[in-house]
Amino acid sequence: MTQPTKSDLLKAERKLPGETVSFSIGDKAIGKDSPTFIVAEGANNHLGDLAIAKKMVDAAAQNGADAIKFQTFKAERLVVKDAPIFWKMPGVKTQLDFYKTIDKFGKKEFRDLFRHAKKRGIICFSTPFDCASADMLLELDMPAFKIASCDIPDLRLIRHVARFGKPLFISTGASELEEIRRVVETAYAQGNFKIALLCCTLSYPTQVADMNLSRLTTFSKMFPGVIIGLSDHSEPDAQMVLPSLAVALGAKVIEKHFTLSRKMAGVGHRFCVEPSDLKKMVENIRLTEKAMGCREIKVYAAEENSRQNARRSLVANRRIKKGEKLSSAMIGIKRPGTGISPSDIDNVLGKIARFDIEHDHQITWKLLK
Fold this sequence. Notes:
The chain is α/β, with parallel strands linked by helices. The protein has helices at 6-13, 50-62, 75-78, 95-100, 107-120, 131-139, 155-162, 177-189, 215-222, 242-248, 275-292, 304-310, 345-348; strands at 23-25, 28-30, 37-43, 67-72, 123-128, 145-147, 168-171, 195-200, 227-232, 253-257, 313-316, 331-334.
């Protein structure tokens, strides 16, 4: 008998169902029976310019995203002063120097941005990288929170944010299974079960061979009470099909990095989708959802006409006289399938014709004895 996990016990204490917990953000339901929740990850691609950020909100809303997400931090709370740059950026030596150029948004800017998003009919939220940033976003009544992959070990931040009781999206890039399990249990321990785990590869850009989308099915088995999704760092493919593959594998949240133009200055733009890519991605996901349909094995309504007319029935191969015993040579199998099915031929052989049966006529049970 399988021993219950700590997660199972925490859920049982609160009398929660064992099945996947669904939740809503505004008027958007997120769960196994709901449409995929599509997030345009704006990160800091606004370059610290509120006007650009608002244009990103507009473009995400116009091209079908359910939400747009940004990042919230202060450089001094994120890195030590001499933390080296670990990506290519000519002229910049430390992470502190870089992050100081883009940590321009405070409470005033985010309030303005959230209000703008509400007018445009799109959900707007952010990833806080420290408790103070999280508190500021909570004061603005932000509807959901995100934990970045790099903060999987930060149990203090996770406990703090989980206590808000808001839906919590958690990226899992570069994490061991036990680290991910610990994060889930940490949130559960705070009474927060509104969790979406996002499969993620912490590589920018992620090569297709490194996406490992099969993890989605593993996540679904390992965390049956949690909504599963994908945070995608791959470069946009020409047809925008990769996120759709994730949906086909069970992802109910897709987060894709988003920019107004990949030609913009700064880092992180080149692996982002532009507005036209986002539109195509959304269309493909909705098409995939429609095609996935029902899991039940049955004859569907759309098949009934073809089933009846493409299948075949037992017919007379020649004129069969009244009183004759039916043999295989007397019986043909022809369309349509409105008579006796060929699967019943063994029950027909040896029967006696009660009446004359004309050549090429369907054989019916009423004609036999």
